[in-house]
Amino acid sequence: MQMPQPDQSVINRRETLAAGLTRIVGAQWVIVDEAERRPYQCDGITAYMAMPLLVVLPGSTDELRQVLRFCHDNAVKVVPRGSGTSLSGGALPLEDGVLLVTSRLCEILSIDRENRVARVQPGVPNIKISEAVHHLGLCYMPDPSSQLISTIGGNVAENSGGVHCLKYGVTANHILGIEAVLITGEVIRLGGAFLGGAEGELDLMGVLTGSEGLLAVVTEIAVRLEPLPEVARVISMSFPSVEKACECVGAIIGAGIIPAGLEFMDRKVLDAVAALIRESFDSRTEALLLCELDGTAVEVDALVQVVNDVARSQGAIETKVSTTQEERERIWSSRKLAFSAIGKLCPDYYCTDGTIPRNKLPEVLNKMAQLSEQYGLDYANCFHAGDGNLHPIIMYDAAKPGDLEKAEAFGADVLIACVDAGGVLSGEHGVGVEKRDLMTHQFSEIDLQQQQMVKCAFDPGELLNPGKVFPTTCRCAEFGRMHVHKGNLRFADIPRF
Amino acid sequence: MTQTQADTTIQRPATVQDVADIIMDAAQAGCRLAITGNGTRPGLGNPVTAAGTLSLGGLDKIDFYDPDDLVIRAGAGITLDELEAILLAKGQYLPFEPPRYAALYGTDPRRCTLGGAVATALSGPRRILSGAVRDFVLGVEGVNGQGDVFKAGGRTMKNVTGYDLAKLVTGSHGTLAALTSVTIKVLPAPRAEISLVLPAAGLAEDTALFSAIRALPLGVGGLARRMNDGGTCEVVIRVEGTQPGVAGNRQVLEGLLQKRGGAHVLVQEESQAQWADIRELACLHPRADELVWRVNLPATAVTEFVARAREAGCINRFFIDWAGGVVFSTMRGVQPEVDVLRYRKMAESIGAKATMLRAPCAVLTRFGAFPPTSSGVAALAARTRAAFDPAGILNPGRMSLQPQEQGHA
């Protein structure tokens, strides 16, 4: 992975730029000292690091607006960041760019119980919204596993999913309106704090959501609140083979049931978890499915019965249904511990999130086994089966020369297999820098150009989060002037990063 | 009374390549094109002046349908009737319940297309529970204003790879691209459906009831307050789900409605017919010379808004859907210059969005069918449009009027 060459002349201006930014946010909130910048040098992917030019933490929309404008006027790149939990390097700093951190914008501005809407600032951690409305019997549905830390602004930038998005949808389905600041410092408001608040507008909010900080910085979000489900029960189903478990996923959905969550764990993950919690799983089990059903008590009881029957007919060895909240939490704990349990097995692991049509699960999982042999790296599988959202956990040792590169290549081959199976590179982590160079495998030159043209409409100077998502610069100035018909490569000469 | 382009030629290609060629030719000749499906909603949006019309109605094939994966991809020109029949055969449906609105424009509802539903982003009564069109569009293929065929999104349930251009195209009224195919997430249709119907009380009381019901996790996928022909109003509550789930939720609701004197129950087909009428705004019965409006607003604001608008003569007949979140109304067309501005102003003062679903051409051209946006958003939208259609040949002006054309600017 290669980033654009940092501009030394910008780095040389560090002190002057810091002085300008200090005038906007105050000295306390501009981090110049190298030791203090160090904690910001990576996000959730620790394999990629870069020291930010400066770190700036504005305390209001107005300060943030001025910071962006200042950077725009001084032609300085900006990388926006929430809590830095991105798993694709979306918040990876640039050595010649300002890291704009939204963590001080962390207020819940209003909670409207009657209309079931909360207005929040971007730095609010996801979980805080649900906590703030729990006493009203409401919640904010999208629940990425990073929800204790990851911010709602970051969730909007990445269009985060979560365990429950199979039934309830992802971030984009739960936001009603946003305030965002363009790189010029211009503040725009899209949608409203009610359904249909964006009627008659182009869905600019839709394209900003999941744009990975390349189009604008979100400063306020109006989110939908939903009634808390009355009951949630989880069924744990163990299978003698990965194939059987995969087939059961299709059979559950095919039976007309949309579970609140449907998760898959393979034997390696189960063993790792078992070692951690000193509890063993049935020795015949090669794969485990966790299926959560929620709704009213009557409805859930009926659905539990159907899923149980489906699982049995699909060859499940054993099924367990939670009858109390404690049991439900215990069953889920194995899934929640999965990644840390794997972390104990190997010095490092690498996890991607290609997503495929559900009926391609057996095919792609087989391919993974084959790749594992080819690269000589072990892997485990723990993923959102209901969405076809894979999370292969590739184990490696960063201390071994060449191991990271091997893991990256393994991951890339899995993603390519996902695209070839009719799927996509990323279901929820984003492209960032991690999958950037694979974009040409999923999209044609024209598809990518159309996306980059939108970038030019928002940020023609390419100052916001450059080097992410797209394998080439946009060259906005050329677009609209040059045009070659019939699918001929337009910018064959553009250097790749 | 409504119409759009005085066109000369209608082209109805049957392949994506032909669509691309037509647009490329038009782009090179600097010709504007009206983009339509089967032209069933000619008066929705601002009038378009174009040299020719490009109909996508010929692209009407299913590309694939994978019921176990809850996904279907079809040509933009497939009719909603055909699509819904294909889904129903597998016990599935389009959760966003696309309205046709053909009656408003005197066209044939059976000819409304999938592409039209996506381009206009019209969502039906179930939006309060299931979401809008945009929430079910997984991917699109289209041809931009330069004749380039592009695809965006995909077919998987989750996808954050690159910008979500599929969302951007949804609701763009053919101003970004001519849609050629759409990939849609579908869901199992509810096994059981009933509606509880009771006489309306005051608007405030009824919206409070809606809010109380929505606060409960009962899977209520329809809360409307409709007007009967006699002028009295009724509250209609739709409950969907599994057989036992619906029965249980019905009990809870009946308990809740006891102090309102109870409700009568419509079962299955009766309930479906009722909601088809609500979806199609049937109870409005707009006269030929009346304007038809949709106002989206917070449910807590609807009572006062309707009272003020009726007092000012801006609302003739009206009904409420989306649990109070949308008002559909008719306006007498006597002095639209005064009433349109007054009604829009009332809506704007509370941050609501007032759209003219139907109005005479002259009114649409002068005031714009859609609610005005801030100058910053309008400029960004214009730049975004240019990113797809730099010469502005696709449905020019359909969504936003040129500033000098805006009567209220």
UniProtKB/TrEMBL annotation, chain A:
Leader sequence range is: none
Q: Which UniProt keywords apply?
A: FAD, Flavoprotein, Oxidoreductase
Respond yes or no to whether keyword Lyase is given for this record. Answer: no
Q: Which GO terms describe its molecular function?
A: FAD binding; oxidoreductase activity
Keyword Oxidoreductase annotated? yes
| Pfam families documented for this protein | FAD-oxidase_C (PF02913), FAD_binding_4 (PF01565)
Cofactor dependence is on: FAD
What's the domain of life for this entry?
Bacteria
InterPro entries noted in UniProt = FAD-bd_oxidored_4_C (IPR004113), FAD-bd_PCMH (IPR016166), FAD-bd_PCMH-like_sf (IPR036318), FAD-bd_PCMH_sub1 (IPR016167), FAD-bd_PCMH_sub2 (IPR016169), FAD-linked_Oxase-like_C (IPR016164), FAD-linked_OxidoTrans_Type4 (IPR051914), Oxid_FAD_bind_N (IPR006094)
Membrane-spanning ranges: none
| FAD-binding PCMH-type domain boundaries | 48-228
Protein name as annotated: FAD-binding protein
Q: Which organism is it from?
A: Acetobacter garciniae
From TrEMBL, chain B:
A Pfam family per the record: FAD-oxidase_C
Cofactor dependence is on:
FAD
Q: Which GO terms describe its molecular function?
A: FAD binding; oxidoreductase activity
- Superkingdom to which the source organism belongs: Bacteria
Residues annotated as domain FAD-binding PCMH-type? 2-189
Question: Which keywords does UniProt give here?
Answer: FAD, Flavoprotein, Oxidoreductase
SUPFAM superfamilies reported in the protein's UniProt record = FAD-binding/transporter-associated domain-like, FAD-linked oxidases, C-terminal domain
Query: Would you tell me the protein name for this molecule?
Result: FAD-binding protein
Species, as recorded: Acetobacter garciniae
